[in-house]
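Progress report, Aim 2. The chain analyzed during this reporting quarter is listed below.
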Amino acid sequence: MSQLLYSIEDAAKTLAISPWTLRLYVRQGKVKVVRIGRRVLLSSSELERLMQHGCPSGTTTDSRNEAEECQENRANA
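Predicted structure tokens for the chain:
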């Protein structure tokens, strides 16, 4: 079964956040992406997860712990 893939810009609009914020979450490992060549895309299931559960904000200084928290949230969802 195939899933739809969304660009960073389209996903950011859907989530009502800046594309730069979404890219930051990707770099920090908070958001799971699909890479096709140079393109970075979000699956429809990951976009749905973010809409329902969100992801930790980048307000703390320890992004490794936040990334681990996000992965745990994904596993529990």
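Confidence is low (pLDDT under 50) at residues 58-63. Helices lie at 8-15, 19-27, 44-53, 63-76. These observations will guide the mutagenesis work planned for the next reporting period.
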